[in-house]
Amino acid sequence: MVGTDPESDVAVIQIEGDHLPYLQLGDSDRIRVGDWAIAIGNPLGMLRGSVTVGIISAQGRANLNIFGSSDLAYQDFIQTDASINFGNSGGPLCNVRGEVIGINTAINPSGQGIGFAIPINLAKHVADQLLAHGKVQRAWMGVNLAELTPEIAEGLGIGVSRGC
What we know:
This protein is about 15% helix and about 25% strand. By secondary structure, the chain is of the alpha+beta class. The relative contact order is 0.21.
């Protein structure tokens, strides 16, 4: 394994071999709601080579409590109604040209026909960071908002106990 990023659910692995088959990467910024989507995976972890078809239902889905990603800090999912089932995580979500536009990652177990994929542009950015630095370097401003309690005011040597 080259590296993992638990916050986006993306990992980079190295596979040794000659003439391995692969899919071309598409551009997830160019997809539109209503575009065809093809999900490839191994449902239930044992049904090899399953292919399902649907459409892109939405883009930019975030703040979701969905199976497989409840602890992810960064959510920016493609939503599709192409059937994604347990075991499909890591499989490609493709467009009609066979280009990978996402990585199947999560489902909503309380709904049917609602699956989610990590946009391939985000996955590629994370993968490039993992290859270059061994981790993802994210910007941070160093600012935290918090309620000013009397204890915090005292600890900081502030003479007031509330903001104005």
